[in-house]
Amino acid sequence: MTRLLIVDDEKHTVDSIRLGMDWEGLGISEIFTAYNIRQAKEIFEREPVEIMLCDIEMPQGSGLELLAWIRETGRTTETVFLTCHADFSFAKQAIKLDSFEYLLKPVPFAELESVIRRVKEKIDKDSDLISSSRYGHLWFRQQPLLVERFWLDILNQTIPPHSAMIAKEAADRSIPFMEHMQIMPILIRLQRWHKPLSARDEKIMEYALRKAAEETILDQKMGALVVWDKDRMVVLLNVEPDNAEAAELKAACMSFIAACHAYFFCNLCCYIGFPVSPVQLADAANRLLAMDRDNVSLENRVLLLGEPVASSADMPLPNLDVWAVLLEKGKKDELIKEACSYLDRCRRAEGFAAGQLHQFHQNFIQMVYYVLKTKGIQAHLLIRDRGSLELAAAAANSVMDMREWVVHTLQLAADCIRATEQTQTVVERVTSYIQLHLTKEMTREEIAGHVYLSPDHLTRIFKKETGMSVSEYLLQERLKLAKHLLAKTDMPVSAIAAHIGYSNFSHFSKMFKKHTGLNPLDYRMAQMSD
Fold first, then answer.
1. Tens of pLDDT along 105-115?
2. Of 423, 451, 471, which residue is a domain's last?
3. Are 397 and 430 part of one and the same domain?
4. Cα–Cα dist 424/419, whole Å
5. Across the beta sheet with 232-239, what order do the strands follow?
6. What is the pTM of this model?
């Protein structure tokens, strides 16, 4: 007894399909119709539906949204999508994995009849599998989300790794559980998309990856698939002791990776563990997770637990002092070429360690921030848009992510420096330079040289705009810093004098009293009494 639901916002399409097929000959016992998602959900709430024919784009909600709701509620309804759009691009491949088939309107009845027969065969095959499998009926009859939540709680150790506690939680959730079962964990890590995706497309593709994993790695084996976080899934296979079939699993994982690379434009890695008990599962999965975190250069690979992902040979860090000079001098293209060349060598080494990437990351940030400081640019102004922040967050994940972020950051930094230098006046550049070197000895000639002017010419320009000479401005700023240090710290006066560029303590004291009316110690005492 098989029930079928037709969902389409066009009434003539629904009537054509309902009246034009020999449903009795196909073994369909009852036909339901709906013209929007709301009506379809109402039918699902009161009737079991084995097959659904559904339009994709409807005014009150898409067929994809309806199928997502069906899966969330644990229903196993087989779905055939109907659409007028022939150029649905890569989403077509994704939808095929989430639904049984994808057909273009108008659908010839002969083609639709063939699809319905194949859907019926699949339903019958699944029913036989449930009946004949030793554990099958226990795994299949439960709502998928309930089962997934149970295993996710074990992985996250929300359920403590103790046999009695796991068994109790399984019983409380009415989930079949055998203490002696062996679980083979396989970690799937999505490393990158090759194409920019909208939020909607990304959701579709992530769901497609899940379905692809179920069809290629699970492939009707007993087990479950758990979404661990945004870019990681874990396949949990229920295996017989001493019969892990590692070679077969590795081949299945390679097939999965190849399909995803070809059809879904992404790179992945699969990490295969060893069979463990449910009590040992969290530890085993975390060991796979540690492998993934150490892997910053290998892509589209299948790796067995314990297999090295990084070599012992160190890749020398680049001379970032040279990079700083290139950035400071505006040699953007030359610097980006140098950075890409270095990171490409790291990637080709296929063993560049995560620790080495971290060192490079920190040194690179230091170099960029140093150059920005010399230009009087605040670092937080450089990276504040959403795209830049996302690239920065992902940079340490892999050499390729680092490469993308480094190029992006160097382009931003170079453009920011060029724009700042073009818009700053001579006086602004001088005051920025003085602030940057306030604690060092500076001569009038050195300051003038920074803006490529003679000392006398600079003095005329500076005094005209500020009302004081460069030397007077320098003294004023040093006094301001000295007052702050005297009032807010317990630094010795001699140390404060040295800090603001006065090697002669006596000269500093005389200069300070001349301009404030108090010697440094009296000024400090006066501030403390206020």
1. 888 899 999 99
2. 423
3. no
4. 9
5. 223-229, 232-239, 182-193, 266-272, 301-304
6. 0.60
